[in-house]
Amino acid sequence: xxxxxxxxxxxxxxxxxxxxxxxxxxxxxxxxxxxxxxxxxxxxxxxxxxxxxxxxxxxxxxxxxxxxxxxxxxxxxxxxxxxxxxxxxxxxxxxxxxxxxxxxxxxxxxxxxxxxxxxxxxxxxxxxxxxxxxxxxxxx
Length: 140
What we know:
The chain is an all-alpha fold. The chain has helices at residues 12-16, 19-36, 41-45, 52-65, 71-76, 81-84, 92-107, 113-131; strands at 132-133, 136-137. A two-stranded antiparallel sheet has the order 1-2. A hairpin with a 2-residue loop joins strand 1 and strand 2 (136-137).
């Protein structure tokens, strides 16, 4: 038997991330990476110059996605991640740049190593879904 929490059940991931404040810090670090990494220049250009709304949306989305309150839906309505990004030319490089920003942001958090790895693996799923629709890259 292990003392490692089973992430992804109930609110274990939300709690491991530090609740809303912990998720907000992760998102802030994520967007700082996006603004500074040369590999992320293309995906940064896909966003509005002011990242306030993007930061809020990602924070609220991750809050519910990790088992916390469903605040994204309350404020912005429902979301279909692939459909919401379908207008953007997202290829492998853009998907990988997004994941690199998240990987670097996760490394800056005071998360358990197992949780950071779990979260990055789980985030690969929506990143891949944005990239692929019916076996074809989106936006191409």
